[in-house]
């Protein structure tokens, strides 16, 4: 438990770059080559059934060796995570040993006159940002172009603050209600997110995909999928943020989450809820809760969710639930998801 509390968190600082015309042209070329060869490696892996054994000398293009090594790592990690995937957004990255930060510049190797040379590019950094990057353990730096601007995304590690909370917050995740939280000692309850609004978003994009599919517009479907994923990711970020703030404000030092491994395989959902379940981003929401909780020193524990929505919190009798309201023979009555969250909070 102690080890989990002192584990560092990775955050990202975005820094605006102001390259010269020549530097911008080289960044454009580098990012294009980076993504092209990363895609080539993934397609080779898909064809062979495993990621190829390659080094920088196998990447036949005029980019710095350190960038070649980064693109190999990037392609390998994405293939391991997603399998067959296609990178569309141009980007290029350097590891933490191959770039330096000064108050007004970021310096890293790019190609100049046919040679790899460490080049200083003007950066818009506040004094606080420079101090943060100077004092933190830094990770990789990734550069992308957003509109007309070049942005450097620099990863850095921070140690979480220590929480003084002593209570436990139980979280019940669901489809109709994305998350319900109950504090173990007081029973204080909060509902997070809007499941009906999420279903409206899903139905909207499903309808649009069907219409585009009939017109054979596959690229438009991919763009639509990306947009939907970004919307749901933003929703999950906000839900996770509200949950962690609620835990902090109610003096909770621990959050109990359901261990939902294999839920798609074991769920008995039928009909219209089946598609919703398989699109449900519960794993992403759980990851966001864990990450944001760790930032402020709150411990997250996974518990067995079996029968948590059927067990009476008062007499521990098990009752089948047919609607949103839970009723027990002992007289206890309450919202089904709140019952689940309370039992999760009380699970040791």
TrEMBL record:
InterPro entries linked to this entry: Cas12f1-like_TNB (IPR010095), RNA-guided_DNA_endo/Transpos (IPR051399)
Sequence ranges assigned to domain Cas12f1-like TNB in this UniProt record: 282-344
Keyword annotations from UniProtKB, A to Z: DNA-binding
Domain of life of the source: Bacteria
Residues spanning the signal sequence: none
Molecular function (Gene Ontology), one example: DNA binding
Keyword Secreted carried by entry: no
NCBIfam families found in the cross-reference section: guided_TnpB, IS200/IS605 family accessory protein TnpB-like domain
Protein name: Probable transposase
Organism: Alkalibacterium pelagium
